[in-house]
């Protein structure tokens, strides 16, 4: 049981995600998590004010169920499959983060400096992050699941362009904006 | 019955993301600093299995559960939307350390600030819907 309670190796995580993608294709669906944001907007009535949300969102209910499962999966992992081991980060990463004031690096799963308190500074950062994720994924027509996993597995070059974009954005944020924010 | 399968696949996905630490802000930070194989190995493993699986389904003319031959929907052959949209998403991914899946996995795990992220992601999606026709694709 110890192997189940300890963090799972990356190759186990990657293999399980590939299995989930293939299972969804076999079920006649596709693996694309961010589509749920569009579906939720439509279900909340966004179709009244915007054409983009005027579609049969009920046909996407399977994906909302998948989302519900993901929430349950997070709950089960923490409640029943966790011994509290923090990610064993690279030493250089931990040292670098300590220098930037992230003292929880190497000790927590999520940084307490960013998610531990509901300060205005933190809430503002969550809001900006959310806006970027929602706007960016729909603009790019997919997120990590639809492009980096599914699109690349299908050898579609537009998905490679998207993944290159993800990395440009991520590198900009971490190396250009983080020193200004934190 | 089919509904239960989608929920169970979601549970498996959520466990894989959480337990293999792809939902940890720290792992994403580490990835964008090229300091560990962890996230690259995660994605590479998924792709290795994914490419083989999908190519096999395509070439063998495999059918899905409804008896339809499995085909791949080609994405539109353009660059701006993928590159620009991708950059926006990448910035958000690095900032909150979670892509859309892990945002919800972490809500389940008790990281409730992700509720705020999810609500604003809905707002961001709505904003895209409103601006769609004015943006380069």
Automatic annotation (TrEMBL), chain A:
What is the recorded name of this protein? Uncharacterized protein
Q: Which domain of life is it from?
A: Bacteria
Topology in the lipid bilayer is annotated as: Multi-pass membrane protein
Query: Would you identify the family this protein belongs to, as annotated?
Result: Belongs to the TsuA/YedE (TC 9.B.102) family.
UniProt subcellular location: Cell inner membrane
Record has Cell inner membrane as a keyword? yes
| Gene Ontology CC terms | plasma membrane
Instruction: Name the UniProt key words of this record, in alphabetical order.
Output: Cell inner membrane, Cell membrane, Membrane, Transmembrane, Transmembrane helix, Transport
Automatic annotation (TrEMBL), chain B:
**Can you tell which superkingdom this protein's organism belongs to?**
Bacteria
Alphabetized Pfam families for the sequence: Sulf_transp (PF04143)
Q: What is this protein called?
A: Uncharacterized protein
Name the source organism: Sphingobacterium psychroaquaticum
